[in-house]
Amino acid sequence: MIGQSMAQVAMRLSEPERAVSDSMVTVGQAVRREVAAMGDGMERAIARAGELETLVANEVSALERAYSDNEVRIRALLQDIAHQRDNLVGQAEQVRSAISGVQIDLRHDIALISDATSSTRDAIASHPASMRSRRASPARSRNAATTSRAHSAMPAIT
Question: I need a surface site. Which of 45, 123, 155, 158 has the fewest CB within 10 A?
Fold first, then answer.
């Protein structure tokens, strides 16, 4: 057995090319297996990258559609707000003109009442005897009654 071992060692040492070629074949096969595994891994990575690219493209497309839809909605909202603002401005102008008209009417009414009050006071001041005397003629009594009703119907202005 020892002799056989020594013979094998001697043959390997005498023919190193064959031992090396067997080792080279083994190393070559290992390299080919690794290259094939790397190629398979690269193909899977490329396929996955393609799938991810498709997913990303779909998401980008969905985002663009959502952005476009939101842009349309925002433009519609802005137009609606502008329309409402115009309506409010118009209504404010109507309210302003109505208030102005009421103020003018009130000033006019106050001036009329003031004039009527002044003329009534002047009339009373110029005819004190006729207003104080209750025994006046029937025509004067009717005038005095009409004047007193007019005074009671008018609001007091100070």
Answer: 158
DSSP state of 15: -
CA distance 116 to 150: 10
| Domain chopping of the chain, boundaries | 8-126
Q: Is the dihedral of CA 153, 112, 106, 157 positive or negative?
A: negative
Burial grade of 116 (CB within 10 A; 0-12, 13-18, 19 or more): middle
**Structure tokens belonging to residue 78:** 């802005």
pLDDT tens readout for residues 15-45 = 766 666 666 667 778 888 889 999 899 999 9
Residue that is written with structure tokens 């404010």 in the block: 92
- Summarize pLDDT for 61-113 with one digit per residue, the tens: 999 999 999 999 999 999 999 999 999 999 999 999 888 888 888 888 888 88
What's this model's pTM, rounded to 2 decimal places?
Answer: 0.41
